[in-house]
Request: fold
Amino acid sequence: MTELTLPLRGLIARPLRTLLTILGIALAVAGFVALTGLTAGVQHSFASGIDENGADLVVSQRGAFNLVSSTVPRSLASGLSAVPNVEAVSGVLLNITTADDAANIVMAGWPAASFLWKDMRLLSGRIPAPGDKWPVILGESMATALDKRVGDTVELQFQPYRIVGIASFSSVLNQNSAIVPLEGLQQLLSREDVFTLYEVRLKRPLDKNDIAVARSRLIAAAPGFEVGDTEQFASSIRIFDLLQAIARTISLVVMAMASVSVANTLLMAVNERTFEIGVLAALGWSPRRILRLILIEGVIMSAVGGVIGIILGALAMEMAAKTKFAAGLIVPYLSGWSIAQALIFVFIAGPLGALYPAWRATRLLPAEALRRI
Amino acid sequence: MSLLVELNNVGRDFDGGRIVAVDDVSLAIEDDETVAIVGRSGSGKSTILNLICGLDRPTRGDVRFEGRAVNGRAAWAAVRASRIGIVFQNFFLLQSLSARENIEVALLGNLGGASQRRVRALELLAHFGLAERATLRPAELSGGERQRLAIARALANRPKLLVADEPTGSLDVQTSQSVMSIIGNLHREFGTAVIVVTHDEDVAALCGRRVEITDGRIRSDSRTTPAPAPRSANP
Reply:
């Protein structure tokens, strides 16, 4: 028999209540993992989507609220292209809309001469040619979801587009995107003289120092604008901060509820087991040891609930990402840090909930506890 | 021979003083004594026992153990853990634990190492004829076996004092004989002082000292020659 035997038996003796409490903790943790993971996933998805197109650095509006609200003027292009070690610069216009009113989609408008077209891996069809009327290349996942093939039509931003190609990408964002010629999209959005951002490709070979030097030169060429790599660009978008703040606030509330649930369960257990606590006290268990017994029960439930919650959270993210409206925008992202945060939460919230019942258990005089059979 | 427990003008009230369970009790018990505290139901004898073990707190007066005043829950817990073994009328065994674990639970914190605790528990179970019942839960034991297990648990930490509250109160006549046999020999076998609260004259007769309680006060306190413990063929 060890110190764990009694808490474990106590929990097993009340299986339904223990399971329900563990479920409560698991759902709270799952909520935290899913909410923070999806927020980070969207951010990560945007970064990897831009990264995949071959850009090394991104020039965008400083402190843009969301991905599509960034505005950079066309006039910056020549200055950026003149920076030493810059191979190519491409303005990109981004928009989030619906495809055939059936799924959310990211539309990317690329100039006809952009270097971005070069790395595209077409599965079928071709890239848009001069003279094509409203051509579009769909990402493979979006084409599959909409059951579209080359030659079909898809409505984007209230404009029917003809699918000229279907491309394969490694990032989920691009797999669920529509790539169209820049001019048509600028016209649709009435943003003729601006882009969402510039994607900058540097000359090869590259090392970290080259990128840092080029970055500082680009900052000088585009004063007042944000210049960074794709991860820096994604993290500079303020909506992600807002989403993270919302996710963390909701998670905190849910975790607080889980903590109350632990407190409630253990309080009931302490009330029911007053006699047992009295016996232990009569046997010479110190108040501190009795406190530890109840806390261990809280920690066991929290640990089990935490692990189940992380698994449930990961599954919930997968399911959310698979819905048609979330495709491409929501990407499951389970990092070691978010797992660590969930576990830190759980190991604070659980024992915190157990503390009051445990303290109450130690306040009883053994004779008083033993009278309550 | 030295002073083990000392109650000095101890009183215990309940219900805000409306019920006086124990009033102005002074009692000194030596470490080689066997004491029977007798009295009718409600006379206050169990309350005195609770005060002797620190299970309850006196409203007035003080309780000293081995010459020292013990104050607070933690201090009393430490005394009970190492110096006092308690046997209750209703056994008070933990139903979720096996017979062996019920003894081990008393050893947690006092005897380091799970294997050492296990050996000590098995040793006690064997002594009280319960070796074969080690893995059974209390609900699977007979009344006599439960009380023997409760006595074994009380002796787990080699206490200086063993107190028993109506140890035969929940047992039939035959099983009572077996438990009386054990209690009668405890002092000789384990060298512990014994205090028994009982209203059973046969049990009281096993002790060398008899303290009679009436209405929460000591009515008489006398020393006699203890009766020989009954023999029990089935311990």
About this structure: The longest strand of chain A covers residues 86-99. The CA atoms of residues 193 and 285 of chain A lie 78 Å apart. The radius of gyration of chain A is 28 Å.
